[in-house]
Amino acid sequence: MALKRKIQELQKRREEVLQGGGEKAVQKQVSMGKLTARERIVALLDKGSFNEYDMFVEHDARDFDMDKKTLYGDGVIVGTGTIHGRPVAIFAQDFTIAGGSLGLMHSRKITKIMDHALKMRMPLIGINDSGGARIQEGVNSLAGYGEIFYRNTLSSGVIPQISVILGPCAGGAVYSPALTDFVFVVDNISKMFITGPSVIKTVLGEDISMEDLGGARIHSTITGNAHFFAKNEKECFGQIQKLFSFIPWNNEEKPQKIASKPPKRDYKIEDIVPSDPKLPYDVRDVIKAVVDDSDFFEIMEGWALNLVIGFGRMGGRTVGFVANQPIFLAGVLDVDSSDKAARFIRYCDAFNIPIVTFVDLPGYLPGVDQEHAGVIRHGAKVLYAYSEATVPKMTVIIRKAYGGGYIAMSSRHLRADFVFAWPSAEIAVMGPEGAANIIFRKEISKAEDPEKMRKQKVKEYKDKFANPYVAAAKGYVDSVIEPCETRKLLLHALEVSENKEISVPKKKHGVPPF
Ligand code: HXC
Q1: Distances (CA, A) of 268 to 149, 288, 289, 386, 419
Q2: % pLDDT > 70, the chain
Q3: What are the angstrom distances between the C-alpha of 350 and each of 178, 347, 353?
Q4: Mind listing the pLDDT tens digit for each residue in 147-206?
């Protein structure tokens, strides 16, 4: 009987906690098109798999009347569950409780589950819906964020860390996501900023809406802080589940291999690339023509459009794709596309995912804007990331591979394992027009008909270098292949690279151009 009463008391305590911030706050949350924190976890994880811990944790703040306030579970829900039948750790901040703000005990719940995730070598998912450091708790909140950032860094490259932004997230609530591998945002719901509109008004006297300051679209198209954009929370959870189908659970594992499927017949690789090298094409069609089931899962599809990254499968194995996109800025490397490529390459390398690179670019983007924005430093990240990566690296040169772009895009010289080139490949220090203008300047200017001479010299240069055979003659390209042979050769390359092992000098870590 006594036990029965105690069970009833437990049930009553649980019910209290499940109220969150109360009916009114929950209604406000719902009216904004948002699920509650627990509903989000249930929607994301495998059905019935979630187990919650630390439900009865209470805050211990005393100042500013905090001692009179009950904040159930201190505004964050933590636990473990499964996705695709495999274990994950998760936390979800509850905006209905003190705006999901992070006090000391709130942070301790998060750091405890982070430690658990790292110890058990399972992914960590953070659903962020928080006004940042809890103002009433002062330095204790800052300490809490510091402890989270430290663990984000410690776990980086060991377990996947996924951040979902599902509310107005300020301060520390955006810095922790920025340290994680992938950030998901939802239209109209996600906001990310270091300082919110009210602080901006106070300090700078400027009026700006949360949406214009750091809405989902801003971070998916302008800042590059978000990797995936969804129309609503349901679509967002579907994207996360799909991402988990491609990646391994920790850095000691390889991604799970599934049954191979041929690409769809709609993508005919011979018909995608126009024969006129000046005409653009969508490189995603080339990727879809080689991946299983033509299923390409693009990452950051709204930002730095001149470069495409994402996951697909070949022969059932996960592959990371990096490709210049000729339909935007002719596929050049610039500050943003270099950042986009470099970080993804490092992710693939950390998590044992082979990289396939499709090359078609006239080089790095010239101009004062780029130079002053630090294209040297940012561009160097691509050189560093490819050179550093020890996973299998396969390169396919489709058309242009000029100058620094040729070297940077996973060339043999940065230790690509296989370099294939289509007959349409042009490998040279720069485009024929630019090259002829420089090295034949005197002949052109002295000629009776300079324009005719210029054309002749451009043709001369083109005949000499605008092909893959000079590089093939030196072994920089392993095979010149027909486009229709691309999938077959990549599949074979992946197969023979399965046990790739190379040694690098012993060091603590490098000093990349961050
Ligand atoms: C304590 C907070 C809070 C915070 C919100 N609340 N943020 N309480 N600390 N940081 C509370 C509000 O007082 C309110 O409580 C409830 O949460 C809902 O907030 P509203 O303002 O009514 O909601 P909304 O209008 O949607 O605005 C959300 C918001 C805004 C944009 C997040 O609340 C805001 O600007 N908050 C402050 C953001 C901020 O500057 N945080 C500190 C960052 S510094 P009641 O009781 O009225 O319902 C930081 C340090 C770490 O994080 C930096 C590391 C590098």
Answers
A1: 47, 9, 6, 29, 22
A2: 100
A3: 17, 5, 8
A4: 999 999 999 999 999 999 999 998 888 999 999 999 999 999 999 999 889 889 999 999
pTM over 0.85: yes
Same-domain pairing of 132 and 48: yes
CB 42 within 8 A of CB 50: yes
Task: Indicate whether 258 belongs to any domain.
Answer: no
Query: Do 329 and 460 share a domain, yes or no?
Result: no
pLDDT score of 171: 86
Does 274 lie in the same domain as 206? no
Give the Å distance between the CA of 100 and the centre of ligand 1. Answer: 8
Q: Tell whether 80 and 64 lie within a shared domain.
A: yes
Q: Whose CA is nearest to atom 6 of ligand 1?
A: 99
Give the CATH number for residue 352.
3.90.226.10
Relative orientation angle of helices 283-290 and 486-496, to the nearest 10 degrees: 60
Per-residue pLDDT of 441-485, as tens digits, reads 999 999 999 999 999 988 988 888 889 999 999 999 999 999 999
Quickly tell me which residue has 């776990």 as its tokens. 155
Question: Which residues contact ligand 1 via a Cβ below 6 A?
Answer: 98-99, 101, 131-135, 142, 145, 168, 170-172, 175, 195-196, 198-199
Ligand 1 center to 175 CA (angstroms): 15
Domain interval for residue 231: 34-246
Of the candidates 211, 246, 281, which is a domain's last residue? 246
